[in-house]
Amino acid sequence: MTLEGILPVWKPAGFTSHDVVAKVRRILKIKRIGHTGTLDPQVTGVLPLCIGRATRLVEYIQELPKEYEATLRLGIATDTEDLSGSVLRTEDGLSARLTPEQVTEAILRFTGEIEQVPPMYSAVKVDGKRLYDLARQGVEVERKARRVTIHSIEVLSVDWTGDYPEVRFRVLCSKGTYIRTLCVDIGAAIGVPAVMANLVRTSTGQIGAESCLTLEQIEELQRDGALQPKLLPMERALAHLPEVLLNEVQTGKALQGQKIRVLPAAVSHLTGGQTAAAFSPSHELIGIYEWDPSQGLLIPSKIFS
C-alpha cells in the first residue's frame, strides 16, 4: 500500500525539522515527504508531515495559525533570545520588584497585530544570506520589522520562587511569529531583560497534540503495516477553506484539469478571488480552486487526480 496523507509527528528535542523528515524518509522508504513549518531543535511539539500527493498541501498548512505553550524567564538576556545562547545580561531581584499581575498585564497587551524584528538566529534571508549564518560569523545586520498577528494569549501559571521569575503562557499566532522575540519584547515592555526558557507547539491549525505520533511509534506502526490509518486525510488540512460540492459532470471535468462553470447559488458563500476546496458527490477531495465571479468559473489551482 502506498502511504498518503498527513502524518502528524510529535517532534522531539534535539532534532531539526529536516532531521525529522530525514528520519521518517528512512523509516517509510518514501522520498516524497515535506514538513509544514520549521521548529528550532530544542522546541518540541506538533510537526505535520505531508506524504505523497499531500506534499502539494504544504503551502496551505504553513499558512495556518499555530498554538504554542511558552515559558518566559525574566532577568536574563541571550544572543539567541532563548537559553541555547550566550548570556548578554542579567538582572537580579525582579521577584521583589515586579508582581505577577504587572507581568500578566504586559503580556496581554500583545494581543492583536504587532510588529516583530526577526532574531539574528533565524532562517530569514537578508541579501540572500541566512541570518543564523551571519550570526555565527559574529555579524549583525539590520532587519526590517514584520507584522504578525497574536490571535490570543493566555497566562497559564507563574513561578516567583526562583532568582528569575517565570511565566508560562499559551499563544495562538499567525505564520512567521517568533515566540522567542515575543518573550524579549514582553520583557522590553516591562523594562527588564527576558528570554524564552521553553517552547512547545501544541497545534497547527486543527491538527493537535492528540493526533501526533512519536518517531518510535511511527517506526513500530510501519513495521506492523498499520501506519496508514493513523495518517490524516488531506481534507483535514483544508478545513479552514470553504467547500464547494461538485456534481458528477463537474467532477469529471475537474479531474481533466478544466475550469468549472457553476451556478452562483452553489458558490454564494464565496467572494471573488477566494480559494475553496472542491469535493466530488461522494465527498472525495478533488482539488483547490479560485472563484472568478466575472466569468462564473472555478479556476483550478491544484488537482488531486
What proportion of the residues is helical, as a percent range? 10-25%
How many helix segments?
8
Task: List the helices and strands in order.
Answer: EHEEHEEEHHEEEHEEHEEHEHEEEE
Mean pLDDT across the residues is 91
Percentage of β-strand residues: 25-35%
Whole-angstrom Rg: 22 Å
Class derived from helix and strand content:
alpha+beta
Main sheet record: 9 strands, mixed
* Gross geometry: globular
- Distance between termini? 18 Å
Low-confidence stretches: none
Explain how this protein is built:
The protein has 305 residues and is α+β, with helices and mostly antiparallel strands. It is built from eight helices and 18 strands. The protein has helices at residues 17-28, 58-62, 94-97, 100-108, 131-136, 179-190, 215-223, 248-255, and strands spanning 5-11, 33-35, 44-51, 66-74, 76-78, 87-90, 112-116, 125-126, 129-130, 146-159, 166-173, 194-204, 207-208, 243-245, 260-261, 275-279, 285-292, 297-303. The two termini are 18 Å apart. The mean pLDDT is 91.
Explain briefly what this protein structure is.
This protein is an alpha+beta fold and 305 residues long. The protein has helices at residues 17-28, 58-62, 94-97, 100-108, 131-136, 179-190, 215-223, 248-255; strands at 5-11, 33-35, 44-51, 66-74, 76-78, 87-90, 112-116, 125-126, 129-130, 146-159, 166-173, 194-204, 207-208, 243-245, 260-261, 275-279, 285-292, 297-303. A hairpin with a 2-residue loop joins strand 12 (194-204) and strand 13 (207-208).
